[in-house]
Each structure stands twice: as C-alpha cells, then as structure tokens.
C-alpha cells in the first residue's frame, strides 16, 4: 500500500493547540509507536505533514495529518489548514494551565473557519509529568462534555494512549462516512439527523467524494 489510489477513503486530520504542548511529538509517536524511538522536541514552524495508510473493516484508509504550529504569529496561516478537515486533535499540556484555557479559543477558531461536520478530540498531553500536573483530568472531561467532543489524556514520550486517540477519532469519522454512503434514501436516515447530515454533505471535500465513488465502484454499485 504505497499510493492514495489504493485507498478506499482519504481523511484529512489536523493537530492544533498552543506551541509546546507536544503536537509534533504525538504525531511522531503515532507514526512510530516503538517506545525506543526518540521523538522530536522542537516546535513546528508553520506546519508539518504526514500521510499514513491502514486497514479497518476490509477498507484501506489514508490519513493526511497536518501538524500546525501554535505560535501566535502563524495563527492567520493556520486557519487555511482547517478547510476540508474531517477531524481535529486539540492538544493542551496538563502541566500548563494556560494551554488548557486557550483550548476554548482554538475550538472557536476551528468552528468559525473549519467544516461544520469536523470531529474533534481534546487531548491532555504529558501525563508522564504527573507530579507537575496543573490541569485535573476532571477539568478536561468537563470541558469535552460541555463541547460535545471526545477526550483522552496521553504521553507522547511514553506512547501512552496515542494510538487510541487516533483510532477513536478516525472511527467516528468512518462511522459518519458510512452513514453518508447509506443516506441517499431518506428512509435510511432518522429525521432528527437529516439536518446535521445534510450540513456535513455540503462540507465534504473532493477527496472524500472521490473516495466514496471509488469504494462503490469496487463493490459494483451503479448508484
């Protein structure tokens, strides 16, 4: 599996949050889960990009991950990376309360500049520094519940929960894609879900549309 042409679905995912929270380290650990592998500690300048292929439920998914900088001077640039993103990981540092407080602003920016159907995961990173913790787990859980988003705590350094974060978030996106594939007929969709599904359909990027058509072609579907 070396090319996106072999993928059934292509998903754009962005990492966001204040500088120094460990976004780049989380991505590095996701790409190389070996605990013996040293992960970078430098801050991202502008953005970084990574692509990964994996299989799930007999489907090949290609994930395009955009690691955005948290530096203030690049914030206007970051907004452009929100476009067409189907998933976002919002990271804060559990040892720095300010990074958690700023999550509300990051989320507002995503909601204002991103896609209406974007799935979000709140991640409190650096749990290996428990003795320095400044943000309680319960605070993160409460924020996530209020914003109706998922929540995890991780340690990129030790590889704790990193894979679980990506798996849980991508599963939510894939569930939505499957609903969209089966929602051509209104009788397949709960009336209470029609509005949100229609909004998400309008926000689907050309890559996802092409991916769905490719998947149907493989199945021999003429719809």
Automatic annotation (TrEMBL):
CDD domains: Rab. GO terms for molecular function: GTP binding; GTPase activity. It comes from the Eukaryota. The keyword Hydrolase does not apply. The keyword Plastid does not apply. Keywords: GTP-binding, Lipoprotein, Nucleotide-binding. SMART domains: ARF (SM00177), RAB (SM00175), RAN (SM00176), RAS (SM00173), RHO (SM00174). Pfam families: Ras. Belongs to the small GTPase superfamily. Rab family. PANTHER family: LD44762P. This is Uncharacterized protein. It comes from Euplotes crassus. The lineage of its organism: Eukaryota, Sar, Alveolata, Ciliophora, Intramacronucleata.
């Amino acid at each position: 599996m070396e090319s996106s042409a072999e993928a059934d679905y292509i998903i754009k995912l962005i990492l966001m949050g204040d500088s120094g929270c460990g976004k780049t380290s989380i991505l590095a650990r996701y790409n190389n889960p070996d605990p013996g592998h040293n992960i970078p500690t430098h801050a991202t300048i502008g953005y970084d990009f990574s692509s990964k292929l994996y299989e799930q439920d007999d489907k090949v998914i290609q994930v395009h991950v955009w690691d955005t900088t948290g530096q203030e001077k690049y914030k206007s640039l970051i907004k452009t990376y929100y476009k067409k993103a189907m998933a976002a990981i919002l990271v804060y540092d559990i040892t720095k309360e300010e990074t958690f407080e700023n999550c509300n602003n990051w989320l507002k920016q995503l909601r204002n500049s991103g896609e209406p159907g974007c799935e979000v995961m709140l991640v409190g990173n650096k749990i290996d520094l428990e003795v320095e913790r400044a943000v309680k787990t319960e605070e993160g859980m409460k924020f996530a519940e209020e914003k109706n988003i998922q929540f995890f705590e991780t340690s990129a350094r030790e590889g704790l929960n990193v894979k679980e974060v990506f798996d849980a978030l991508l599963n939510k996106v894939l569930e939505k894609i499957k609903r969209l594939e089966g929602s051509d007929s209104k009788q397949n969709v709960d009336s209470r879900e029609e509005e949100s599904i229609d909004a998400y359909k309008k926000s689907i990027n050309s890559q996802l549309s092409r991916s769905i058509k490719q998947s149907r072609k493989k199945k021999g579907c003429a719809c």
